[in-house]
Amino acid sequence: METTHRVYVEDSRDLSNLDDDSVELVVTSPPYPMIEMWDDLFTDLDPAIGDALESGDDRAAFDAMHAQLEAVWDELERVLVDGGLACINVGDATRSIGGRFRVYPNHARILESFEARGFDPLPDVLWRKPTNSAAKFMGSGTLPPNAYVTLEHEYVLVFRNGGEKREFEPRADRRYEAAYFWEERNRWFSDVWTDVRGELQDLEFDGEGSDLRERSAAYPLEIPYRLICMYSTYGDTVLDPFWGTGTTSRAAICAGRNSVGYELEDAFLEVFDDRVDAVPELSRSIGRSRLDRHRSFVENRRDDGKSLGYEAVHYETPVVTKMERSIRLREATAIDERSDGYRVEHRPLSISLESPTG
């Protein structure tokens, strides 16, 4: 199996390189409006944003920032297939402007924007982020009433393009082989994720690109990897219009899907180039870890006296449901950089799972 991975150093408000209905899944984390680290980026896109911030007109700044994101959402509606899904990781912002402290509900504004474009909101996920801060409060400490709740979560908003689900031919191998284990389904499809750790980015750039370290803000690989496994099949294409350091593309390679990314800063491509050679081993490690976790689950379930009703076709292990029988994990074996992106060869995961005893 071969997958392709393209990156365009272009503005994602114009996805003209992509045909209509050419991607099946969007997984992205945009710059968060009203978070100070993104002020310069938004001002570069629309100088009126900088003027509004300077004058203390927070409402105008918030609206104008989201207007820039909405130009991207317009394009997503066009390139995403009917029934395709969009997963948007975003956090709300807290900020004092003009002497007034408030929260800016980015997730609510994005919900409204997608609904206005004909997307159906689906149940979302709260990602409970770990924090290293000893201070668990903002405001006046332990004195009522002027302390504030600390935001320690982000949202993964999920939308379907149009009202109908995607259709597949009966018993489509690319769908059944991309199934996930029953216990993974129970963990991944919980509406609160507390087991995903934040990732401290250690990026190396030369010269004038050194300021990009503060602007990377990449989410952990686990988030796009889960979402890609949850909401796409083998052969699908995943789009990230805010590509950054390419975390979504790395996750797509590990999951055996195609990917497309858009990124304004070409220096980020250097980071991806430095990391991509390690992705085959990463994909193998992820696949083996999934199988090892399933082995532990089987042992624990048997210890509890519970049965497993089916045998996996490609692995010597029992599974809980009939839909899991055809699971076939993939690993990347060779990555070829070409002028139009990367070509990646995949094969079935190079390890079999021994049937647990007992």
UniProtKB/TrEMBL annotation:
EC primary class: transferase
Keyword 4Fe-4S: no
GO MF annotations, alphabetized: DNA binding; N-methyltransferase activity; site-specific DNA-methyltransferase (cytosine-N4-specific) activity
Domain DNA methylase N-4/N-6 positions: 23-271
Example GO BP: methylation
EC numbers, comma separated: 2.1.1.113
InterPro entries listed in its UniProt record: DNA_methylase_N4/N6, MeTrfase_CN4_CS, RM_Methyltransferase, SAM-dependent_MTases_sf
Keyword Translocase: no
Catalytic reaction equation(s): a 2'-deoxycytidine in DNA + S-adenosyl-L-methionine = an N(4)-methyl-2'-deoxycytidine in DNA + S-adenosyl-L-homocysteine + H(+)
A Pfam family recorded for this sequence: N6_N4_Mtase
Entry keywords, A to Z: DNA-binding, Methyltransferase, Restriction system, S-adenosyl-L-methionine, Transferase
Family membership noted in the UniProt record: Belongs to the N(4)/N(6)-methyltransferase family. N(4) subfamily.
Protein name, per record: Type II methyltransferase
